[in-house]
Amino acid sequence: MIRSFASPSACLASVFIAASFIAAAAAPTAAASRPRSGGLVDLMPSPAHVRPGDGLFRVDESIVLVRDGAGAAAAEVKDRAFRAGARFMARLAGRTGLFLKQDYLASQAASGPGGIRYAFGEAGRLVPNEDESYTLTVEPASVRLEAKTDLGVLRGFETLLQLLSADEKGYYFPCVTIADAPRFTWRGLLIDVGRHFQPVEVIKRNLDGLAAVKMNVLHLHLTEDQGFRVESKVFPRLHELGSDGMYFTQAQIRDLVAYAADRGIRVVPEFDMPGHSTSWFVAYPEFSSAPGPYAIERHFGIFGPAFNPANERIYPFLDAFFKEMAGLFPDPYLHIGGDEVEGHQWEANPAIRAFKAKRGFADNNALQAYFNERLLKILTKHGKKMVGWDEILQPGLPKDIVIQSWRGPKSLVEAAEKGYQGILSNGYYIDLCQPAAFHYLNDPLPADAPLDERGRSLILGGEATMWAELVTPETIDSRIWPRTAAIAERFWSPAAVRDVDDMYRRLVPTSIALEELGLTHLKNADLILRRLAGGTDVEPLEVLAQAVEPLKGYARHDQADYTSLSPFTRFVDACAPESLPARAFGRTVDAFLAGKDPVAAEELRARLESWRDNHPLVLPLMAASPALREIEPLSLNLARIAGFGIEALDGLTRGEARPAAWIEEKRAVLAEAAKPAAHAELAVVKAIGRLVDASAGTAK
Amino acid sequence: MIRSFASPSACLASVFIAASFIAAAAAPTAAASRPRSGGLVDLMPSPAHVRPGDGLFRVDESIVLVRDGAGAAAAEVKDRAFRAGARFMARLAGRTGLFLKQDYLASQAASGPGGIRYAFGEAGRLVPNEDESYTLTVEPASVRLEAKTDLGVLRGFETLLQLLSADEKGYYFPCVTIADAPRFTWRGLLIDVGRHFQPVEVIKRNLDGLAAVKMNVLHLHLTEDQGFRVESKVFPRLHELGSDGMYFTQAQIRDLVAYAADRGIRVVPEFDMPGHSTSWFVAYPEFSSAPGPYAIERHFGIFGPAFNPANERIYPFLDAFFKEMAGLFPDPYLHIGGDEVEGHQWEANPAIRAFKAKRGFADNNALQAYFNERLLKILTKHGKKMVGWDEILQPGLPKDIVIQSWRGPKSLVEAAEKGYQGILSNGYYIDLCQPAAFHYLNDPLPADAPLDERGRSLILGGEATMWAELVTPETIDSRIWPRTAAIAERFWSPAAVRDVDDMYRRLVPTSIALEELGLTHLKNADLILRRLAGGTDVEPLEVLAQAVEPLKGYARHDQADYTSLSPFTRFVDACAPESLPARAFGRTVDAFLAGKDPVAAEELRARLESWRDNHPLVLPLMAASPALREIEPLSLNLARIAGFGIEALDGLTRGEARPAAWIEEKRAVLAEAAKPAAHAELAVVKAIGRLVDASAGTAK
Question: Is the Cβ pair B36, A624 closer than 8 Å?
Fold first, then answer.
């Protein structure tokens, strides 16, 4: 719902045009010049409706932020919108270097007309389907941000910051009218703090990142085989024995929940059971399905230990535990996991076999369904609705539970057909190092989904999942950002916003803007390279890293016996999941081969030469640092294929076809260069291959 | 005290040689090759005694960490040494990329001979003059780290990590015997969280940095005119009204104190009074010396508001407050500030004038002495010893207080002559952006200090002071590190370790090693430059930044009306307080002019050409980003003076003297180029000036 304007605006028209249209139309110019002068085309996620105006609102030291509307009488109440306004002004000062004259921490009270004015009707609740819409009107004399709830104001501040532009006179916001609201109400990121613990500051900076791209759910995967990550005052041995000392205290949880709420973000806690639960049994082996003893699991995979549903004593324990956790986490939802029950312990335990027989349970699924029903009663008793992975879907569950699909959109549709709400995570596994475009084009509710209107309304949204086998606090941001901004756009923006090239263009300024929040996705690559090199001269490693990506999917696990204590400080950990320069190289190859871009050949040559000449610069670094020696195949192969990429380019620019034997020989080397090395792979093999193929004179 | 070895070592000789001698002898080779292969000469702070041995201890995946000695019976007790050992192994894995086989988080129990073995006698107390000594013996078959207390083990782990070296076969520790102990017992860093608040994660990563260079005191300056930064449950309006919401909760303070203790670091809290106290009076104007009302101060300087010593009601208030804080901070010392009482409020208040007259107080110093005596009684009642700045020194104070000198070493000597303990901060004001060498050569206890042995024993050490007018969480690390490592060496190492060039050489690997702790001193410069440029291509800005330093001393305050809300995101904030590349350029100029270095001319030419050619690359970045436009004089002047630096170099290499008119013209430009711009200054003007002067043929 879009709240009507307090005062009619000449700029406001009844017909809005889709933001994606404007972005597409303005893209080529903006890409050629600096993104800073093109705030209007850099918006991410793209708003629902954008209507550009004429003129600009100048941003200088005299600008003030003013609270209007229903909250204006209490303008000195330093509530969530006030605090968001203060952060907005601090970030605006940070980006412009302006010494703003207003003391926006002390007062955002009215002081005459003009300025940046915000208003809202009521405080938004942190529940699904709350109103997050806003309108933003930039005119030469004032900026007006209006919303039904303060959540809309928070979302609008982010849009306004993204509008910042510059000309020869200084900074400005371009005149525009934006009417915006999210497509989906559940826009989340799961962070797995079980497999690798992530301390408070990692969670906080990622909460700021989520808020910047208008996400509204942080799903904390708090317990795993590898760690129990939250303090229990009722059962303190859980975190004392199950965490290696790496857990959130309850004070820290309260701090995180408040920090998230201040940014309009819900925190949904997950306690994964009955499987994925080894760390619980270090303290309480008696609740598992085999005698134990248990140690914290260091390896990754699907393990045997599981709660024993046939043991009546587990239910009072879980009752007391969830009572405590229900008090700690205010969100109406609580996630009980439920995925990947390995089953071996259940099958090996005679008492469990007897229990299944007695109850007439045909299989382990039926046993798990029984366990879930018991859990559901406990959660209901403590005022929580249940969320769980696909596996929990079973007949007889109440309709207010939420199914989170890791298996695929089909199971979501099935659930919706039965009347269950769902969120999609399949296709958003950002730990698997797939391209942003792959996630971007994955839609929780495709146009052809076989659902009626009621069914469609049950698809609440989705969650990106940051599973943490292979990340540490040092590297996790680079696995989340900037790709999660593309997912955020899928969840927020109209379904028709699907221009992949435009998304990638906007991802660059978005990524840079995310850095101001303390996110380390860009800056920690050099840190890793400096540590590896033992020095500050790491340019040859940077050049190589931009042509390399980590192995994708689960392939990296085949390269070493990874555990939660393994080092994640190697060259592969400095490589982005998707190299934007490598992608750009591929696009330039395509433009060149299509004959569309006259400067493409020179760009390609410069890049290929830098790769060809890089290997001799890498060699002394490898000689000094044993940890770097594994990159030799990558560096050598990059030099090799870059070398004949240049030969192919030469042939193509001169119009000379290469002989078949040459092509065949190069294809063999390319096949060799495509192989994994140092747990990574060259990301430019296919693009160079296209040059080689084309140089035969047979390709387009 | 050095604990004797559990088993006699053939490697251990009765005569140790000073580490500085080894470092100096090995320096040239190590500087030319990679520092990683020279761990033995990179130690910082330099140990008291180092005796190199033959051979090496190979570091591979099979190495284990083993607890021996008095604690071995309880080897599974996960005490401070155990946790430090786990961090040591994680950092070793991080630096080497090795998948260590030992689960060092679960057990460091003995498993046969060999490995890295540590032992200690007892848990060290976090008080001055506790034993922190250790011996470290690396032999081909084992490493032995032994100490009287676990604090010595912590210090020794840091030394061992610094010893990491590499050869063609992999990583190793060189055989060596080190016997080490600190020169001073109070080795601190003050962080001013009053003027700019620094959240928990900033303090934690700096605690890790302090531990890495063997510092042992964190002095938290918790209250200032600009903010009251700690939660008081007794008087909650203090933090609620005095902090803009930016304060440490008591849970966070306990977490910080425990985190510091785990690293062998004391936390000394400071509550500055009677001046520097505006933020207290926002909640309690009645305790000040003028009616109020008061607002949180945004500007910097020395302000009027001060507690009213004549108001008897302040003492029960302070009694209750310090009782609460004494319970929160376990350190035996509590700092009451006492500096820079402006006095105006006292002089303007008739009741205070009458109080002074009645008591026969000649001046405000006498009034402050009275206030301090009352405070001292309160602190004593709550079990705390008093620390204060110079101004608190007055007749009649007990001898267990500590004077912290910001005025100079003379006042320390005077205090010691009277029997008072002292710590030096004068000369360690790292906020003033002075060179590391300046701080390094500043000694708390110079050889010529006119003190007897008793007097010398009263000089406990010193503290670097990170005053926070001009820093934010984003920039503070770059103001602290790596220069504070040089100060740490002054406090830890023998007085004779004073080789400035060798210190600078070791500062480079030390700085890189500090990054693994999450410190942002290197990586945040690029972040600031990327935000300014609105893009990732910031190399021209990096080139310029390496030739620029922030204005020194208090000169930056003359450039703008700085407040605690000003942006610290400009170009100057990306510049290191001391540019190590600029310093290296100056040393190369000197080497060239002394005719000692045949390759110096080529190095100088390359560097000067990169500066000369940089300005055209900076121009488009400035055009796109108004916040960058202020750097034009810096960029243009650097190009100009680099240009005639090359001319001077040409003349000198060809043996042609430049005419006097040329010299005079260039000196005028150099004088112009030396002027401040963008709150910064070019750091290479003098070095280029030396080339110009020499090219007249008159200089050496």
Answer: yes
CB contact under 8 A, B36 and A560: no
Interface test with A, best of B625, B630, B679 (most A CBs within 10 A): B625
Strand B548-550 with B680-682, pairing: antiparallel
From the candidates A130, A240, A340, A609, give the one annotated as an active-site residue: A340
Low-confidence ranges of chain B (pLDDT < 50): 1-37, 698-700
Taking a C-beta distance cutoff of 8 angstroms, is the pair B517, B511 a contact? no
Half-sphere exposure of A474 (CA within 13 A, CB side): 26
Structure confidence by residue, pLDDT tens digits, B370-410: 999 999 999 999 999 999 998 888 877 888 899 999 988 88
The reply to whether residue A93 touches residue B473, judged by beta carbons under 8 angstroms, is no
Q: How far is CA B697 from CA A216, B600, B691, in A?
A: 70, 18, 10
> In this complex, which of B99, B169, B171 lies closest to A560 when CB atoms are compared?
B99
Q: Are A348 and A283 in contact (CB under 8 A)?
A: no
Question: What is the tens place of the pLDDT at every residue in B539-568?
Answer: 999 999 999 999 999 999 999 999 999 999
Which region among A319-323, A347-351, B390-394 has the lowest average model confidence (pLDDT)?
Answer: B390-394
Min Cα separation A543/chain B (Å): 13
DSSP calls for A545-571: HTTEEEPPTTGGGGSS--BTTS---SH
- Cβ contacts below 8 Å, chain A against chain B, sum to 183
| Residue where the block lists tokens 């500590």 | B402
d(CA A670, CA A686): 8
Question: Which chain B residue is nearest to residue A513, measuring alpha carbons?
Answer: B531
Q: Which conformational region is residue A11 in: left (phi greater than 0), alpha (psi within -120 to 50 degrees), or beta?
A: alpha
pLDDT, chain A, mean: 92
Whether the CB-CB separation of B264 and B124 falls below 8 Å is answered with yes
Interface contact flag, B570 A97, Cβ < 8 Å: yes
Whole-model pTM over 0.90: yes
What would the two tokens of residue B38 be?
């020279």
Helix (H) or strand (E) holding B621: helix B615-624
Contact A518 B567 (CB under 8 A): no
By residue count, chain A amounts to 700
HSE-CB at A594 with a 13 A cutoff on CA atoms is: 8
Which of B34, B93, B168 is closest, CB to CB, to A567?
A: B93
Q: Which of A94, A513, A532 sits opposite B567 (nearest CB)?
A: A94
Query: Using one digit for the tens of pLDDT, what is the confidence trace for A182-208?
Result: 999 999 999 999 999 999 999 999 999
Q: Which residue of A has its CA nearest to B298?
A: A103
Position A27 pLDDT exceeds 80: no
Q: Which ranges of A516-631 would DSSP assign to H, the alpha helix? A: 523-533, 539-545, 571-574, 580-593, 600-612, 615-624
Chain B residues within an 8 Å CB radius of A201:
199-201, 204
> Cα angle at B493 between B487 and B494, to 5 degrees?
125
Say how many C-beta atoms besides its own lie within 10 A of residue A424's C-beta. 27
Residue B98 contacts A, CB cutoff 8 Å: yes
Q: According to DSSP H, which parts of A213-277 are helical?
A: 237-242, 250-262
Express each pLDDT in A487-510 by its tens digit.
999 999 999 999 999 999 999 999
Whether residues A527 and B532 touch (CB distance < 8 A) is answered with no
Question: Can you give the pLDDT at residue B342?
Answer: 87
Note whether B509 contacts A534, CB cutoff 8 Å.
Answer: yes
Residue from B130, B240, B340, B417 carrying the catalytic annotation: B340
Weakest mean pLDDT among A566-575, A673-682, B6-15, B79-88: B6-15
Tell me how far apart the alpha carbons of residues B509 and B44 are, in angstroms, rounded to a whole number.
9
B104 to chain A, any CB pair closer than 8 A? The answer is yes
Question: Are the beta carbons of B486 and B505 closer than 8 angstroms?
Answer: no
A391 is catalytic: no
Query: What is the amino acid identity at position A593?
Result: L
